[in-house]
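Thread title: Can someone regenerate the structure for this chain?

I was given the following input by a collaborator and told the matching structure tokens would be attached. They weren't. Posting the sequence so someone can regenerate them.
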Amino acid sequence: RAGNHVKETVTIDEGSLDGFQHTMEPLLRSLGLMTTLKKGIIHLLKPFIICSKGDVLTPEQAKLLKLFQRPLAQFKIKVKVHWNKQNEQVQVFDLHDEDEDDDDDQQAEEMIEQDDEN
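Best answer:
Regenerated them for you:
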């Protein structure tokens, strides 16, 4: 995602880019790659560094990472509370992570107590 700090250097080797249709060549050129079209196959003329470790990601770099299927971000969800509609019960999961405050767990428990009172 543009604006994020890059945690690793990502490069593309020179040579054919078999995963791309010939119609993608102008887009790749507009994103800064030195390419040529030979017999309907896109070729990268020299190695290209998409991003370097520590850089702030630009929109163009983010687009290239997406095109080359090189995601650098992770999406995580932690389920802390589950409500079962059939038996109208709430289950609180005990998830203690060193990086998180216990405030979220406490808020979830308070919400359950308030729900039980109503």
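The mean pLDDT is 78.
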